[in-house]
Design a protein that fits this description.
transferase activity, globular, magnesium, seven-stranded mixed beta sheet, tRNA threonylcarbamoyladenosine biosynthesis protein TsaE, alpha/beta, P-loop_NTPase, T6A_TsaE
Length: 154
């Protein structure tokens, strides 16, 4: 696991933007953390890094929003799901194993449906409300290499 401290929403956004260039088709990112921890801020930075111009908002009520950029971005928010079966009704596997990048806010609620090879990111609020500790856990060798490019070599 890697841990990064950001001091503002802008730094969290920028950290995500820097991840985007190393993403490829079929990548899945699981974002977890309390309400207001910065999951959507992270998703917005990622979208800009993928060349997406339209505003990114949390898909809390629609469950998924699709955006077109260098790669398609499939932005899920599964906070309101009552069971993983609801995710199956969406045809999640077509997204997770498709030609875009899937970002799943509250992915810990459907962990059994997430691919084994993925990037887990947990955002934690620190004492100062603007500060975040971002815990990055690569699942699989491919993600270990990508995280090395993103965080270690930077």
């Amino acid at each position: 696991m890697f841990s990064v401290i950001t001091h503002s929403p802008e730094e969290t956004w920028e950290l995500a933007r820097k991840l985007a260039p190393i993403l490829s088709s079929g990548d899945v990112i699981n974002l977890s953390g309390d309400l207001g921890a910065g999951k959507t801020v992270f998703s917005k930075g990622l979208a800009v890094g993928l060349g997406i111009d339209e505003p990114v908002t949390s898909p809390t009520f629609t469950l998924i929003k699709e955006y077109m950029g260098r790669l398609p971005l499939y932005h899920f928010d599964v906070y309101r799901l009552s069971s993983p079966e609801e995710m199956e009704e969406l045809g999640f596997d077509e997204y997770f194993y498709g030609d875009g990048v899937s970002v799943v806010e509250w992915g810990d609620k459907i962990e059994e449906l997430l691919p084994d090879v993925r990037l887990d990111i947990r955002l934690l609020r620190l004492v100062d409300d603007e500060f975040r500790r971002i815990e990055v856990t690569p699942q699989g060798d491919v993600w270990q290499e990508k995280v090395d490019q993103w965080l270690v070599r930077e």
